[in-house]
Amino acid sequence: MWDHLARLHSGFLADIIAEEFGEAVQAYIGVTGRNPRKGVYGTREDVQKELADVIVTAGIAMIAVAGGNAEDARTHLEERLNVVTERVGG
């Protein structure tokens, strides 16, 4: 995964994270019907696609923050995942 993200890193724009997250939220709202004016629309697959886009974009952002070093970004994510897992008792 990190090799793919590193290849995408060169075209990264920071504003894309917020855009992708917003699309994921909108897809979730559609599937759950949380907007009474629009009712239920979309599919769970739409939500999964949008959430995957958020994960990809966040990974690219992590590489950008790590100065383009995908291995540093991967290590940081693994360390953070361990901290979060321990905190929730997993």
UniProtKB/TrEMBL annotation:
- What InterPro entries does the entry give? AF0060_NTP-PPase_MazG-like
In terms of superkingdom, the source organism counts as Bacteria
From the Swiss-Prot or TrEMBL record, give the protein name: Uncharacterized protein
Q: Which organism is it from?
A: Spongiactinospora rosea
